[in-house]
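Slack export, channel: ligand-projects

TW: morning all. Re-posting the request from yesterday since it got buried. We need the structure predicted with the small molecule present, not the apo form. The ligand is NAP; the SMILES is in the block with the sequence. No rush, but it would help planning for next week.
GE: picking it up
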Amino acid sequence: MPTAFVTGASSGIGRAFAERLAADGYELVLVARRRDRLEELAAALGRTYGVAVEPVAADLADSGAVAGLGDRLASSPPDLLVNNAGLAHYMPFQELPPGKARELIDVNVTAPVLLARAALPGMLGRDSGAIINVASLLAFSGAATGPTLPQRAVYAATKAFLVTHTQVLAAELAGSGVRVQVVCPGVVRSEFHSRQGLDVSAVPRMEPGQVVRASLADLERGTIISIPGLPDESAITRWDDASLALSEVALATELPDRYSQRSA
Ligand SMILES: NC(=O)c1ccc[n+]([C@@H]2O[C@H](COP(=O)([O-])OP(=O)(O)OC[C@H]3O[C@@H](n4cnc5c(N)ncnc54)[C@H](OP(=O)(O)O)[C@@H]3O)[C@@H](O)[C@H]2O)c1
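GE: finished. pasting the full token output, ligand included:
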């Protein structure tokens, strides 16, 4: 039986990944802090699909807990690692308490990097496996100004990190049997907003199961940046091309004319 390790499985997108993967016959390890939620889900999935599901209560902001999960992934690398757990703490940066800023980076960046780093050698040893990182369309929102988007200086940057990390890792792994994907949902119906005290009931939202369906279909197709709501995928190619054009400036040795006014 294939195996999957899903973080943030106690609600929303992570729970939908667990439900879909159990239906597909995966044995599961489900991680989140709320043990009662995980145990209830594990029992329900075991009853419905007859698969083994292990709930593991862990706080991904706790470096010791992440190290313990990493040991486990290193000794039993799953066929699929889904780094889904995340949170946003939307607020102006100058008001974001330092502890919350650290939590955002710990959960959204450090944990997925260290869990992937732990699982990858075993996957490469088998020459098979996959890692899905759940980012957000806000990864691409750095240039957006105005009041319609949430205040997100750290959150959006953590998700942009996952996009770059996954793309570079995908290039490193090309030719191996291990695939990586970063999935970038838009607004999704989950506990993500309500747990921040935000009411987004008037905002159109995608269902978590649709995100999972798109992500797994894109994994099959070998798509590295999966954007479930995107009708025309050529937008990703254009974004890649623009990024490449900027990164190629790294080899410039002369300043362009616009700097020629100052003599210093
Ligand atoms: N909903 C959206 O509109 C949206 C859009 C784009 C991207 N995303 C991303 O999608 C992912 C899933 O979010 P969601 O929408 O499904 O939200 P959600 O319903 O709030 O689920 C978040 C999950 O992350 C877990 N989690 C949070 N902090 C954790 C910690 N310190 N340790 C362990 N687990 C932790 C939560 O479990 P416990 O609280 O039980 O620990 C929960 O299972 C996140 O990475 C989010 O950034 C969401």
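GE: first-pass observations. The chain has a mean pLDDT of 97. DSSP finds seven helices and seven strands in the chain.
TW: perfect, thank you
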